[in-house]
Write a structure and sequence with these properties.
Rossmann fold; Hypothetical protein af1432; five-stranded parallel sheet; four-stranded antiparallel sheet; globular; binds fe (ii) ion
């Protein structure tokens, strides 16, 4: 097995990275809290495949430079991956600008080890897969049986089922935490789906004060995927999912408030690997809040309502945009022959479904369900309007205009036509043509003042 050292003292993040590296690229990870610990280990075991650390390590006495010096002195050619640093800032290291870019980390590691996705799929894994006990803490219900291991003899182990699939995890875990147990086991077949669930723990990171806007964009895009997956499975909003959603919505709001223009926001969105569902939602949130700020009856409360609505409005389309990543807008699905009839029905009904869903959301802002239901101009949330009428709520109209512009911006980008994006007037002709009613006109006028 390949071996890497991870230098970090953020316990939750450590466990998550460790388990991802082990499950996806077969790397066993030793965690060291500081540079001294890592160097002491390498004095004993100099041949590791990689050293992974966070940029914060350098804040203490230029530890990363010291590490490079140590490797040089010992003539060790060990790749060093620094998380959170732009490329090129620290010579001879592999930098990943975003600390939460787990996919990027796995890709770098696979490259170092020269392994392919096929290699990984064919790799045999033992029947039981170890998971650090702390990772179970973020899970309410177990998605698989959880086992405790005891030693029955030299290198012989017995596994006891302690928590069954679907059972509550919290209380049952305490006993083992009290005993100082560090690792529990699950059936290896469930390892990847289990890890996807625990990705929720990084959302706790959203409460940190030292994360950059780019990192917020990455975390919230992962957050939206988690929420969509959960909803797809259970069609209801649990307290856990409500909390993750709330953290994401607030985080997106803080990103758009700080973004001076659409151009600036686009730069961040383009770095993110998220799909159309995520990108157009964030862009539309920026535009809709900008319109509300410039409209006489606009208020902060409405901005919050619209941000909430836009996070959920296409949540049922998230899995479809993942499945068909080349789809460039929502109506595209309906015209494709590779999209099944069943999937097309979801597309036609996604506004209604999402509106119905958020009604079950604890602390759903008043009227947000209606705004979501009407976001394609249909009062019942089924289908896409051709003629936009006056029979829907004013905030729905704002969302419709904001989404229309967001889709246009992303299409212009895709077509390599980035130059005209910042020209507000270049959107007007089409908007006026499409939304003729005078109530829409006021919204279109307000958009002219939004910084692009
Ligand atoms: Fe949408
Ligand atoms: Fe939609």
């Amino acid at each position: 097995m390949s071996h890497a050292i991870l230098i970090s003292n953020n316990e939750v993040v450590n466990n998550l990275y460790e388990v991802n590296l082990r499950a996806y690229v077969g790397v066993s990870v030793t965690i060291k809290k500081n540079l001294a610990g890592a160097i002491a280990l390498m004095e004993q075991v100099p041949h590791v495949d990689a050293i992974i650390c966070f940029k914060e390590l350098n804040e203490k006495e230029s530890a990363i430079e010291k590490l490079m010096g140590f490797l040089d002195e010992k003539s060790l050619r060990v790749p060093v991956i620094v998380l959170g640093e732009p490329a090129g800032k620290l010579p001879k290291t592999i930098s990943l600008r975003n600390r939460y870019d787990i996919k990027g980390l796995l890709q770098s590691m696979a490259k170092i080890l020269q392994i392919t996705a096929k290699d990984m799929a064919e790799k045999s894994v033992p029947k039981y897969f170890p998971i650090p006990i702390k990772l179970f803490a973020s899970i309410e219900q177990s998605i698989c049986d959880i086992y405790y291991r005891t030693e029955a003899g030299d290198f012989e182990y017995e596994y006891f089922k302690i928590i069954e699939t679907g059972k509550e995890v919290g209380n049952s875990l305490q006993k083992y935490l009290d005993e100082g147990v560090e690792t529990l086991y699950i059936d290896a077949n469930y390892r990847l789906s289990f890890i996807n669930k625990t990705s929720g723990v990084i959302l706790k990171e959203l409460t940190r004060t030292d994360i950059s806007a780019e990192e917020r964009v990455e975390l919230t895009s992962q957050g939206m995927s988690i929420v969509a997956e959960e909803i797809f499975e259970s069609d209801e909003v649990t307290e856990e999912i409500a909390q993750i959603s709330q953290a994401c919505i607030e985080s997106i709001q803080s990103v758009i408030q700080e973004a001076p223009s659409v151009k600036n926001l686009l730069k961040m969105l383009l770095e993110n690997k998220g799909d159309f569902a995520y990108k157009h939602s964030v862009l539309a949130t920026y535009l809709a809040c900008g319109i509300i700020k410039n409209i006489s009856w606009g208020s902060q409360e409405q901005q919050n309502k619209v941000s909430f609505a836009l996070f959920f409005h296409d949540i049922y389309l998230v899995p479809l945009f993942k499945k068909y990543p080349d789809c460039a807008n929502e109506e595209d699905f309906l015209f494709r022959s590779d999209v099944s009839e069943e999937e097309k029905t979801i597309v036609l009904e996604h506004a209604m479904l999402a509106g119905r869903l958020v009604k079950t959301f604890p602390r759903c802002p008043m009227g947000a369900d209606m705004i979501i239901t009407q976001h394609h101009g249909m009062t019942n949330g089924q289908g896409f309007a051709v003629n936009y009428k006056d029979d829907i709520s004013p905030l729905s109209k704002i969302i419709i205009i904001a989404e229309d512009i967001a889709t246009d911006i992303l299409a212009r980008l895709k077509a390599g036509d980035a130059k005209k994006i910042a020209d507000n007037d270049s959107y007007l002709e089409r908007l006026r043509e499409r939304y003729k009613n005078h109530t829409y006109k006021k919204i279109i006028e307000a958009f002219r003042e939004v910084a692009l």
